[in-house]
Amino acid sequence: MKTMRKQFLPFALPKISEKTIEDVANVLRSGWITQGPKVKEFESSFKEFVNEKEAIALNSATAGLHLCLETIGLTSNDAVITSSVTFTASVEVICYFGAEPILTDVDPVKNLMTIETLLQCIETNCKFVNQKLIHIPSNKTVKAIIPVHLAGHTCDMEKIIEFAKKYNLFIIEDAAHAFPAKHKNKMIGAWGDFTVFSFYATKGITTGEGGMVTTKHKDHADRIRLMRLHGVNRDSYNRPSWYYEVVEAGFKYNLTDIAAAIGINQLNEACAFWERRTEIALKYNQEFKNLNGIKLPILDEQGIHSWHLYRIEIDPEIAGFGRDTLADELKEFNIGCSLHFIPIFEHPFYKKNYNFNRNDFPNANKMYEKCLSLPLFAGMNDDDVLDVVNAVKSIFQKYIK
Ligand SMILES: Cc1ncc(COP(=O)(O)O)c(C=O)c1O
User: Fold this and answer.
1) From the CA atom positions of the chain, what is the Rg in Å?
2) Contact 360, 29 (CB under 8 A)
3) Atom of ligand 1 nearest to the CA of 340
4) Three-class SS state of 244
5) pLDDT at 123
6) Where exactly are the structural domains of the chain?
7) Less CB within 10 Å around the terminal CB: N or C of the chain?
8) How remote is the CA of residue 339 from the centroid of ligand 1, in Å?
């Protein structure tokens, strides 16, 4: 029997405490609402949390990815390797420089860039000459890799670091989905040259819009700090007098103290949020394990999954219905869902401007036919979880052969 929820259940919602609202109000009353002491406090707590030397707060992860590529000196003669299964942000930042984006396929289980997909990608596209990895079609030098910790599964950083060392590449991890997460015993945020986090509204912790770069390189951290605020050599909070100098043509990517006040509170609640998301994900896994034609997310055997997303795959041959039908049927129950992600090479912009061959990405194509993300967020109560469980089960029941 179909029971429709009265209120729509989206696939993600932020959880904001009353204390957060109070703290934001206090910042608003304080008279200092742009980048100031709260941003400093947020950066300092964040770097302690992930155990990395430097943390720079920004107004988005996209800004963070952009500034990481800027500080390594990316030019239009360079190329960057990233995953074909990601949000456009991981790729568009490469295009900002007129550099060449190179895409890897993903593994069939977690849909991540792996050492195997990396090797396959460079064997097809690159040659190693004079200690430089050259992308053959564009004749550009590969300068960096952007691994994407999709959904909160972590890429095998040890192997990717070994690969990067061999080919003299920087690693800029896209950890928009990976807070808090661990690979082996080390937090994501303390592995590569740079790690970029997102605090967009649907993420593990949020500031409305926001991002953070962590890095072990002091010189790069200083450059990112400079470039986030117009290339001005002193931010206005720390300026002892009216005098300042513009030393670069920078950007306007700084975070506000209003957002940082949200971020500080969210960071304090990050473990509790993660525990609740984990509980829900494990409950889904338990409830759905006997359904035929569903592939469930697996636990990370070598670390800690952030459970940012709960992505499943539907095999229409076995289930008797496909992903699109599941999305439509969930709507009938007043339940939302999402798709992470339409592969990059399927988007008109990338089709028009780059010569990606979809046959090079068999696993990304398979994922795209079958994948769907079900609601998962810390603020879901037990009734919300049960509504999703019952809806999914009854849809499977309806189409059973
Ligand atoms: C994998 C991935 N990378 C980067 C971003 C960009 O994050 P932001 O919106 O903070 O710029 C997103 C946002 O959804 C994302 O999913």
Assistant:
1) 22
2) no
3) 16
4) coil
5) 96
6) 18-267, 270-398
7) N
8) 14
pLDDT value of position 242: 86
Q: Which residues of the chain have pLDDT under 70?
A: 1-2, 236
Q: Pocket residues for ligand 1 (CB within 6 Å)? A: 60-62, 86-87, 89-90, 148, 174, 176-177, 198, 200, 211
Per-residue confidence (pLDDT) for residue 239, from 0 to 100: 72
Pocket test for ligand 1, best of 92, 153, 198 (most atoms within 8 A of CB): 198
The per-residue pLDDT for 152 is 96
Q: Give residue 97's pLDDT.
A: 98
Residue 150 near residue 85 (C-beta atoms within 8 A):
yes
Measured in Å, residue 208 CA sits from the centre of ligand 1 at: 13
The CATH classification of domain 18-267, taken from the options 3.40.640.10, 1.25.40.10, 3.40.309.10, 3.40.50.300: 3.40.640.10
Ligand 1 atom with minimal separation from the 60 CA: 10
According to DSSP, the β-strands at 54-58 and 211-215 are antiparallel
- Specify the pLDDT at position 251: 98
- What is the whole-number distance in angstroms between the Cα of residue 111 and the centre of ligand 1? 17
**What is the topology classification, in CATH, of domain 270-398?**
Aspartate Aminotransferase, domain 1 (3.90.1150)
Q: Please give the model's pTM, rounded to 2 decimal places.
A: 0.97
CA–CA separation, 317 vs 335, rounded Å? 24
Chain center to CA of 242: 39
- 3 state SS for 43-95: HHHHHHHHCCCEEEEECCHHHHHHHHHHHCCCCCCEEEEEECCCCCHHHHHHH
6 is catalytic: no
**Ligand 1 mutation target, pool 56, 60, 62, most atoms within 8 A of CB:** 62
- Residue 2 is predicted with a pLDDT of 66
List, in order, residues 6 or more apart from 241 with CB less than 8 Å away: none
Distances (CA, A) of 17 to 10, 200, 265, 341: 19, 17, 8, 30
Residue 1: predicted pLDDT: 58
